[in-house]
Amino acid sequence: MKLISFNVNGVRATVKKGLLDTIRGLDADIYCFQETKATEAQVAEALAELKGYHVHANSADRAGYSGTAILSKEEPVRVDMGIGIAEHDTEGRVITATFKDHIVVCAYVPNSGEGLRRLDYRQQWDDALRTYLSKLASGKRPVIFTGDLNVAHQPIDIARPKDNYNKTAGYTQVEIDGMTKLLDAGFTDTFRHFHPEAVKYSWWSFRMQARARNVGWRIDYVLVSKGFEQKVKDAFILNEVMGSDHCPVGITW
Q: What is the pTM of this model?
């Protein structure tokens, strides 16, 4: 099995840049998209030419903002939108697909914003999401949690750690601690599990030719609940795939 997660930065725009060819070429069993910036109907329309996948999407109340989607060859047993808390579920940031043998949670975690104006909310979000994931993981099915988590967890995950620490959204101690608490709750960062010293990024600013210079951040992850990391065969970051300011990440098992 192969799962790939990709912040597409607008699914309709990325389709015009070759997303369908990318999906066909990578031939994953499950795709998790973030920042679709589209309604459920618009996601379905953008992907209408894609055959062989069941498409489920969650959209924000605000048009053209946020949004998540899961594409899968196998039809899920059930699909849930959000985490069941009204104040956190207006932006279409979480979609959960329960399959026969596992649960996949796709998330687009809130950015703390310019001037860290949403940092307090981000902390509340992290706590609520961790509770949600821990409850899912307490069941019989293993949980795969993936998406744009908007945090560089360690200095190795960001090109310029000293310049950004406690100054830039995505690399504050509050956000780092939120990620640490999630890992301590029993989840494994699959990429670091297989590649503990690899310097690889999944997001680059559009400014200053950051991607060409590889001045990036690793903020896209695939985490798995306790025990399932033993079944994972590999974790990867596909830097060569274009079309967004992010690149796909994934696992095989």
A: 0.98
